[in-house]
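Lab manual, section 2.4: Encoding a predicted structure.

Procedure: take the sequence of the chain (463 residues), apply the prediction step described in section 2.3, and record the output as structure tokens. A sample record is shown.
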Amino acid sequence: MATVVQEAAPQRLTLLRVLGPGHVWALGVGIVLVGEFMGWNFSVAKGGALGSLIACWIIGLLYTCVAMIDSEVTSTVAAAGGQYAQAKHIIGPLMAFNVGLYLVMAYTMLEAGDALIVGDLVKAAAAQAGHADLDTKPFALLAIALLALLNYRGVFMTLTVNFVITAIAFVSIVALFIGTQPWNPGAALFHRDLLVDLPYGWIGVIASFQFGIWYYLGIEGTCQAAEEVRSPARSLPFGTMSGIITLLIAASLTWYVAAGILPWEYLGQAYTPLYDAARLTGSTFLTVFLFVGTLFSAVASANGCINDAARAWFSMGRDRYMPIWFGAVHPRYRTPYRSILFLIPIAASFAFTGLLDQVITFSILSGLLGYTFMPINMWRFRKKWPLGSIKRGYVHPFHPLPAVVLLVLCITTFFATFLGYGPQLIAMMCFYIIASAWFAFHRYKYVRRGDQFTMPWPRPAGY
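Recorded output:
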């Protein structure tokens, strides 16, 4: 009698769960910390030094709300894609597609900006050595290629490296703060002489909100590690909340040192404000340390952006929102290798434009659209699955106050962005409207909607 041997279904390759809270911290803070070394200071040109401080704290409140909301939802929706995975489970396909696109564009543009910064730092070092005509493009491309290779080979090594270089960059900020002797006013810091009233009034303060985002842009990237942490319920809230605390400290120290050494007229247009402040202290150690810190912060940011953009694109491919070819996992390294490789030329092409302000503006606006989605997502999440209906790794307090505050601050920041970059804002909105139409009328027919709901939740309340 012949026996029928039934072959087992091939096991689906998944991402490895190897990360801990420290890696989550390194991912979130690593992406953001470059904003403490440069970029935030353009808010000084809009609202003066005091206006920049107000923007620092108000936008810090915005991102604290982002961190709390993300910590609750992502510790429950433990899937790659972060906010994209949240949107597909809680709101619907069109919102999920747009949120995924926001994430990919925000991180890819930020990666291109980081590569430009690396090239500019190398050029500045070469100029001091007598090679002022150095071409920065090969260095920008080399930085992207090497970091992409690191991401290709595995997430554990990638974020372990990020943890080390991010920690060194953060320590350099603390070292500069201590080196200026804040306990001895007049030794290096001259706040009494340099701080002036709001030069452009309160409208200048509101306008400075756009660049105040630069203090914290990217902390929400911790959500992209949801499918690769060993314990999502513990690691994601701990890594995210400790990350935003770190950034609030770093932002306050950064403003305090730079505003006490550099006149606001210069600070508002400086490319590397902390490095310039270190040079003015006259300390060779601080000058070298801040150069290294600035370089490491840019590398850490680009490294984290490659990780996050690839996870978002991979998740969209796996759910057929994009071609399923992008949803592949490397059989040995267990990384979304096709998504990593696909996004390299896109980031490089934007880096080659050399238009740092335009690239960064696109990144900021894409991120801001993602933040505007979060309050809606939070309200629907609590309404569909009230407390006690499903297990949460973290419950953020005072709901719905953080969601309301976040929505109000996002609307205010959109207005601030319109004041300085109105045409770019309109162009970006047109881009996302066209992309939404493409998804609704063409790509959606490939989506297997029943396959994308992966969480073992009960039916939502009122279903």
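Check your result against the sample. The domain at 21-447 is CATH 1.20.1740.10 (Amino acid/polyamine transporter I).
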